[in-house]
Amino acid sequence: KWIVARLRRRNGQEPAAVGVVADAGVWHLGARSIVEALESASIRCRVLDRSCLTEEQLEPFEAIVMPGGWSVFQRAAAGKEGLDAIRGFVEKGGTYLGVCAGAYLAAKEVRWQGGTYPYPLILPEGLQKPSVRLVTQ
Q1: What pTM was computed for the model?
Q2: Distances from the Cα of 130 to the Cαs of 38, 106, 108, in angstroms?
Q3: Angstrom distance (rounded) from CA 59 to CA 53
Q4: For residue 50, what are the CA distances in angstroms to 10, 39, 75, 136?
Q5: In order along the chain (137 residues), what is the average pLDDT of each group of 10 residues?
């Protein structure tokens, strides 16, 4: 409901600077909280689903945020084309902010509780650290 309400209010406004992904695998309360926090700081946002993850649709943004949730489902929802579009966006100078599972999604591998888990490499090798390490207590 909150996404539809945003679309209705958005008519006639300036283009958004930040795209926030809210599709399968994304914790929607987290996505909503990110949008509300950014907009409270006067940063215009657009909520993105899989259909928006194309080179053409991502081009106008300064940044893309992938909220937390379940990275395996985020990857499946984005599909190869969506992941390629995100990679291309970053290669052209766009900013990618991954929160929790969104950060996992951009990692080459994740080391967690003594295990190492391979992940698809989204971001260009030179633009990220080779792995994300979580420290748990």
Answers
A1: 0.81
A2: 29, 10, 6
A3: 10
A4: 20, 22, 10, 32
A5: 61 78 94 93 92 95 94 91 92 91 84 82 56 39
